[in-house]
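Dear V.,

Thank you for sending over the compound details. I've combined the ligand you provided, acetyl coenzyme *A, with the protein sequence from our construct and run the structure prediction for the complex. I'm sharing the raw inputs here so there's no ambiguity about protonation or stereochemistry in the SMILES, which I know was a concern on your side last time.
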Amino acid sequence: MTQTHENQPHLTQPVDEQSARALSEKGLRLALVDTTDDAAFDEWLHADSRGFLGGRDSAEALTESRELLRDRRTTAVYDDVIPSSASPVGTVNSWVAPLTVPGGATVPAWAISSVTVAPTHRRRGVATALLGSELRVAHALGVPVAILTVSESVIYGRWGFGPATFATEWRVDTKRVRWTGPATVGRLSFTDPADYREDGNAVLDRVMAGRAGEIAMTPYLAERLMGPRKGMPEAEKYRLVRYDSPAGEPEGFVSYLAKDTDDFTKHTIEVNYLAAATDEALTALWRFLLELDLVAQVHVTTRGLDEPLPYLVSDIRGARVTGVEDHLWVRILDVPAALTTRRYEHDGELVLDVADDLGFTGGRYRLTVSGGQATVETTTDDPDVSLTVNALGSVYLGHDAARGLSVAGKVTGDAAALDRLFRTATPPRLSTWF
Ligand SMILES: CC(=O)SCCNC(=O)CCNC(=O)[C@H](O)C(C)(C)COP(=O)(O)OP(=O)(O)OC[C@H]1O[C@@H](n2cnc3c(N)ncnc32)[C@H](O)[C@@H]1OP(=O)(O)O
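Below is the predicted structure of the protein with acetyl coenzyme *A bound, written out as structure tokens.
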């Protein structure tokens, strides 16, 4: 379907009045950016990049960003009295992303990105106004959850977000490990993003639909995974290898670049993205990476907690997890809609008392799961479990957080029952940043 403003209400919903008022009292102005106005949009893109300590984008990179980010709701805060008043002092953008939930359905999720406040205007409540605005607009449009990936994990708890998926980082000593996984089948070949785009998008669609926590791709996100965006450092060094099944079906790809070291026989491979829609693709692409000549180390991030790599090599300590980090943060905005969209691996019943300081979805709910399918109704019965909306976000996608949250006092009551109902055998995963 052709996307127009009419069928994308996130683009047309006016700015949030409460935040506009709060900012106006500080002499600042909240506004939507017209992404068809190149000059205004470029100022916003520059401010966004500056906020993350990036450089000024080239004309070519700006053209690409404008094209790929046009359909996001793009919000700015302006200080109209400073000399550079066309340059936003606050930025955020958002769109409605289908988020895969346990059982394979998707829930519409308000994806929030590019939250920046100019260092000249920090700690005056600009981010507070932007986040409040995003959540109220999403809620007004009936979007049941909000999601984000974060630069710092201390920021978003105050708005009801909880960490819902965790990502692992790996370093593999390829001079030490030997492939002991299954024989790999299928075909590997080099390609490039221009030739591979259609097949690559089909692979990404399967990957994202296949795991709770993944979000549907947008052209902007897919471009970054298949190859470098324009103007990225070392863009010319990116390589793209596709995996096709013996029948010729596209099932996976890896994009990566080789980094020099002092020793020419010991390059490091930085994996940009490894996409595998099948176990065969996963094993073939891992084997490809691990057996590259002139390479001593493979470095990869944003893999799941259940990455099977250690079982595929001769020396388990040669494939080390060098980091485990919170990745996707979830903020439930509508408890019944969110909880009835996902499936459950066990049947049961729980009365949940959900505390939501911002008042979107707090209350007492009876969750009844039968045949894996939930119904939710409000109730005045005594709760089995009391928890913050953050904690509910943390267990929502199946992550194993109930016990820790209970030890921390963020979940009280029958945390074991909460765990039994919400946790999934396969941990949720988000394999990209947004
Ligand atoms: C989804 C994403 O886009 S993640 C990216 C977040 N952005 C960045 O990391 C870019 C660099 N940082 C920034 O641009 C800014 O510092 C921001 C956006 C993080 C915060 O903007 P500000 O306008 O200064 O935040 P604001 O004044 O509204 O502060 C709100 C609260 O968060 C706290 N806070 C804000 N930033 C931080 C931080 N980095 N670390 C700890 N606390 C923080 C403030 O102390 C304040 O606390 P309080 O409510 O208890 O008083």
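A first observation: The chain has three domains: 5-143, 168-325, 334-422.

Warm regards,
I. M.
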